[in-house]
Design brief:
The chain is of the alpha/beta class. The protein has one domain: 4-Layer Sandwich (Metallo-beta-lactamase, Chain A), CATH 3.60.15.10. It is built from 9 helices and 12 strands. The chain has a 7-stranded mixed β-sheet. The chain has a 5-stranded mixed β-sheet with strand order 8-9-10-11-12, with no helix packed on it. Helix 7 crosses helix 9 and helix 8 packs antiparallel against helix 9.
């Protein structure tokens, strides 16, 4: 029987576990969709945030119509549309996916009946791999950057790969001074990193550093998950990523095995960042697998 080096065995295990987990989460969400958790929040400049268990939806309402960002799951489309109409909008003309997971793309087929679906090219490729129906596929894709002139604003949609997935993009409303970060920001909680879809801890950290150097210090930030925040909370998120990565890396360098590292935990400083879906043990295992891959920061063109 053929054997493999420990690193390769860990990588194979990572891929299988990540794919199985993603499939289970998607199925659970489809079977038990959660309605938006609260009324839409006015962020500024006609931009709103609609909190939801499957992620935070953003939308812009104005003279040009409605731009929707991350429509969550198909079953939630009527509730999202109701929230949009409550703030003077209507069926979206443009629908932007920040990544390929169902919390972003699940309602594509519904909203795509009225509007144009937009996403980074890798999002479309990932959806094709999942045999997604043609009606739910982005029809306009981009590589590194897309600029939209909509509702009297200039919106830069910027591809930042290698963190959460390989197709993540952020939407920066220049005039409104609002940025939707999608799942590159889990406010106050450990994030999900989809290792099987090109994500990594090093890329995640690199992307947050890039964002902090890019956007204004007083920008309002819509996270993929969690409450509306600003640069302060995003900086705290970066500090958590760096500190927990360093702790796990040091333990691995000292020769401790996976079981010991998980048992020792992350210490009291990060206890409040755990959630039912991503607790400390799961976050530690994600860090171990990502660090074991010998990753490096993604190249930028």
């Amino acid at each position: 029987m053929r054997t493999y080096p420990p690193v390769l065995t860990l990588l194979f295990s990572t891929l299988i576990t990540s794919m199985a987990l993603a499939q289970a989460q998607a199925q659970a969400q489809e079977n038990h969709p959660s309605k938006p958790e609260a009324a839409a929040i006015a962020v500024g400049g006609g931009v709103f945030m609609l909190p939801g268990a499957a992620g935070n939806t953003g939308f812009s309402v104005g003279d040009d119509g409605t731009l929707l960002i991350d429509g969550q799951l198909a079953a939630l489309a009527p509730d999202i549309l109701q929230a949009i109409r409550a703030h003077g909008g209507d069926t979206p003309k443009l629908v932007l996916n920040t990544h390929f997971h169902s919390g972003s793309t699940g309602s594509n087929a519904e909203f795509g009946r009225w509007g144009t679906l937009l996403a980074q090219e890798n999002v479309r490729l990932r959806l094709l791999e999942k045999n997604t129906a043609a009606a739910a596929l982005p029809v306009v894709t981009f590589d590194d950057r897309l600029r939209l002139y909509f509702n009297n604003d200039e919106i830069d949609v910027i591809h930042l790969p290698g963190g959460h997935t390989d197709g993540d993009a952020i939407a920066w409303f220049k005039k409104a001074n609002v940025v939707h970060l999608g799942d590159l920001f889990f406010n106050g909680m450990f994030p999900e990193i989809d290792l099987a879809a090109g994500g990594s801890i090093q890329g995640y950290i690199h992307n947050i550093e890039t964002i902090l150097n890019l956007i204004p210090a007083d920008a309002r930030i819509i996270p993929g998950h969690g409450k509306l925040k600003n640069i302060v909370e995003l900086t705290e998120f970066l500090e958590m990523l760096k500190a927990t990565r360093a702790r796990v890396q040091n333990q691995m360098n000292s020769g401790k095995n996976s079981k010991t590292i998980v048992a020792e935990g992350l210490g009291p400083a990060w206890q409040t960042w755990a959630t039912p879906s991503i607790n400390a043990k799961r976050w530690i295992r994600t860090l171990q697998r990502s660090l074991s891959s010998g990753e490096s920061a993604p190249a930028r063109r």
